[in-house]
Amino acid sequence: MTACKLIWTGPRARLEAIETALTEVLWPPARAVSLTKAEPAAEDDETDWRLDAYFEEPPDGDALGALLAGIDGAGAPQIESVPDIDWVAHSLSGLGIVRCGRFVVYGVHDADKLPNEPGLIPIRIDANQAFGTGHHPTTSGCLTLLDRLAGLPPERVLDLGTGSAVLAIAAAKLWGRPAIASDIDETSVAIARENAALNSVAELVTVVRADGFDHPEIARAAPFDFVFANILAGPLVEFAPAMAAHVKPAGRAMLAGLTAAQEEAVTQAYEAAGFRRLNRLDHPVWPALLFARV
């Protein structure tokens, strides 16, 4: 069986816009999306970039054209047939370590590249079929913002839509407090448990399969002092009332997965649910927001 790879090259900003469109609308049919600097290219060159998107089968041409119609210069991609292997792992392996404040996210293939500095918190996340290796700006943004909150340890933590469990693992390592990591996808749940064990926090991170907040473990632990929700804008808006019901007064909610264009709608939903915004990690496409329940 063969899979399909779509390739775009050009300016980074344009490819980031295409990546956003593919991630939000065509995922999970897009099994992996990888944005890398083309070689050779100067370190500060923003024009020579490459976007690879892997699909189980070629996407509908009309649907893809409509999806990209609003992106200036997107153009038609080059299409290649490729062997049917784990393209999530393939596209992410070898990308190197990710430094987010004191957090350093790495894969086993990059263990020898870890900085030898005091105070760093290493998190091993190997490339696999669960979202969240630290390379995407939504994950690195959450980790960077979390690093600023080290002095405010919560008692109860929830990582909603955990993916690889990188955020739950980071919280457990940073604060030494228990965390629940939930995801609706069975594969992600299994990988999250493996990652918690790999990072020696399995006794702190409880991983459950849940649709939103609907799980007995979540109900027993609520209300939470801190909730991560690195998902998408639609579910974030939908979950705003439930988030308020599961977060303590003065508890915090870190939201990511939304784009800058969707920020206003998400903010309005959470303000209407009784939250106020405390902080924002800026990114041209993928901001991370921190709210507190009033």
UniProtKB/TrEMBL annotation:
<keyword id="KW-0949">S-adenosyl-L-methionine</keyword>
<comment type="function">
    <text>Methylates ribosomal protein L11.</text>
</comment>
<dbReference type="InterPro" id="IPR004498">
    <property type="entry name" value="Ribosomal_PrmA_MeTrfase"/>
</dbReference>
<keyword id="KW-0963">Cytoplasm</keyword>
<dbReference type="GO" id="GO:0008276">
    <property type="term" value="F:protein methyltransferase activity"/>
</dbReference>
<dbReference type="Pfam" id="PF06325">
    <property type="entry name" value="PrmA"/>
</dbReference>
<feature type="binding site">
    <location>
        <position position="230"/>
    </location>
    <ligand>
        <name>S-adenosyl-L-methionine</name>
    </ligand>
</feature>
<feature type="binding site">
    <location>
        <position position="161"/>
    </location>
    <ligand>
        <name>S-adenosyl-L-methionine</name>
    </ligand>
</feature>
<keyword id="KW-0689">Ribosomal protein</keyword>
<keyword id="KW-0687">Ribonucleoprotein</keyword>
<dbReference type="GO" id="GO:0005840">
    <property type="term" value="C:ribosome"/>
</dbReference>
<dbReference type="GO" id="GO:0005737">
    <property type="term" value="C:cytoplasm"/>
</dbReference>
<keyword id="KW-0808">Transferase</keyword>
<keyword id="KW-0489">Methyltransferase</keyword>
<dbReference type="InterPro" id="IPR029063">
    <property type="entry name" value="SAM-dependent_MTases_sf"/>
</dbReference>
<comment type="similarity">
    <text>Belongs to the methyltransferase superfamily. PrmA family.</text>
</comment>
<protein>
    <recommendedName>
        <fullName>Ribosomal protein L11 methyltransferase</fullName>
        <ecNumber>2.1.1.-</ecNumber>
    </recommendedName>
</protein>
<dbReference type="InterPro" id="IPR050078">
    <property type="entry name" value="Ribosomal_L11_MeTrfase_PrmA"/>
</dbReference>
<dbReference type="GO" id="GO:0032259">
    <property type="term" value="P:methylation"/>
</dbReference>
<feature type="binding site">
    <location>
        <position position="139"/>
    </location>
    <ligand>
        <name>S-adenosyl-L-methionine</name>
    </ligand>
</feature>
<feature type="binding site">
    <location>
        <position position="183"/>
    </location>
    <ligand>
        <name>S-adenosyl-L-methionine</name>
    </ligand>
</feature>
